[in-house]
Predict the structure.
Amino acid sequence: MLDFLQALSDGVLFGATYALIGIGFTLVFGVMHKINMAYGAASVGGAYCGLLVLQVMAGAPPLVVFFCAFLAGGLLGWLVYLTCFHFIPITNPLATLMATVGMLLLIDEIIVHTTAGMPMAYPAMFDDVMLRVGEFTLRGDLMMVFAVSVLCMAGLLALLYRTRLGLATRAVSQQTVAALLCGIRVGQVNATTFVVTGLLGGIAGAMIGASVGTLSPLLTTPLTVKGLIVTVIGGLGSVPGAIIAGLMVGGFESVLQLYRGVTERDLYVMLLLFVFLVFRPGGLFAAKGGRD
Amino acid sequence: MSDTLLEVRDLVTAYGKIEALKGVSLQVKQGSITCLLGPNGAGKTTLMMTIAGILRARSGTVAFAGREMTSLRPHAIVASGVALVPENRLVFPAMTVLDNLRAGAYQRRDDFAPDIEKLFQRFPRLKERSAQLAGTLSGGEQQMLAVARALMSRPKLLLMDEPSLGLAPLVVEEIFRIITELHRDGTTIFLVEQNAHMALKVAQHFYLMEQGKVTFSGDPGSLAEDEVIKRAYLGSAK
C-alpha cells in the first residue's frame, strides 16, 4: 500500500510536466484547430537551450537555466508558428500537420547532432531535500517541479481570464468569425498563442530534465505521444482537462511502472487512451460550444 | 451624394468558381435604415461578409464615408466605424455575457464601462444575465447580446444580418423596436431580412436581391407589399 502511495505521489508530481505539455497542444488546438506536432520536440529543444547558459557561465544557478529554457521555448514556439503556420495555407488540414512533423524531425536531428546523441546532465533544485512522513517520502526536486509547473499554469489561467490578450484568445477559439468582427487580429492571437505555449513547453522540458537528471534526444518522441494522449484524455481544447489528465497520466504510469516495470508502462498508458477513446471520446472535459 | 455613408459598386465575390455576388451596387444613406430583401441563396450574407472584410471581393469597391475600404482587413473596417451583427448571432458561447461585450470593445482603449451601463439599460435581460455564459442564453437573448456586442465598438454604420431569424414573433417585435430606437439615436442601419413585412415598416429604402444581383431599389410603398414579399421569398419568375 505504501509503495502504491509512493509511486502515485511521485507520478502525480511529475505529471505536472505532462500537464504543461498537454496544455500546449490543447491551447493551439483550441485557437487554431490545428495540431502542432513539433511541440514536444520544441519543448525539449528549449530545455537544451537552457543548458547553453552553463556554457557561457559555468556554475550558473539552476533557476537561470530554467529561465533561459523558458525564454528559448517561447522563441522556438514563435519559429514553429512562422515556419509551419504563418505562410502555409490554413485551409488545407494536412499542410500544417506535415509541416510540424517535419519540424519535429528537424529539431530532433539538430539536438542529436549538436550533442552527439549523448544524454546531458540537467541541473535541479532541492534534489538533496527529502520530506519524510514515516516511510513515505516526498522528493524535494519533484516538489520543485510540481510547484514551478503549477505556478506556470496559474500564470496561464490568469493570462487567459484576466487580460485583454486572454479575452481575445478565448474569443478566437470559440468563434473565429465573430472575433474578426470584433476587430481582433486573429493572426496576432495565433502567433502569441504559439509564443505562450512555447514558454510553457520550455519550462516543461526543463522540469523534465531537472526531475530525470538528464536530457536526451530520446525524450522527444515519448513526450510528443504523452502530450497528445493527455490532450485527448483531457478533451481537445480544454485547459483544465489537460491539467487533470496530465496529473492523472503521470500517476497512472508511475503506479503501473511499480507493478509492471518500466518496459510495460507505456503500454498501459496507451490502454488508458484506448479506454477513453471508446467510452469517453470527448475526453474529461469535452470542449463545449466550440466551432465544430 | 454627400449623404451616402456606404457605397457598394459592382461588387463581385466568389467561392471558387461560383460567383455569389455578380456585380452588386447599392447605397446606404447617412442616418437611414436601409433594408436588403431576397430569397435564400441570393447572396445577402455574402454581401454583408464582404463589406465586413471577412470575405474578399474579386472585383468592385466598397466605400465607407467616402473612403475606399475594399482591401481593408476586418479589424481596420471595425476601426473605421462599421460593425456587423452576423447571421446566427455567433456569440462566444463559453464566455460570460459581460466578456462578450468586452470582446466587442476590443479595439477601444478608453473606458467603456459607461457604454456597458447604457446597453444594460437598453437590454435589461443582459444585465440580469451578465455573469451567465452566452451559450446558455435563449435565442432572443443571444440576438440582443450580438447587437449589444456590435454596439460596443460605437459603430457609425451597423450591419445586421437576419436579426429575426428563428425567433418567436414577440421577440422579433422587440428586435425591431430596438432597431428603430438605435436609428432614432443616430445609428445608420443596413439590415438584411427575410421578414419583409417588419423590414418594410422600419426602412426608408429597400433593395431586392436575387441570384447575386440587385433587382429592385425603391422606397417602401413603391412596390405593393405582397409583390415584395413574393419576390423576397420566391424570387421573381422569369
Summary: The longest strand of chain A covers residues 130-133. Chain A is about 75% helix and 5% strand. The two ends of chain A are 45 Å apart (CA to CA).
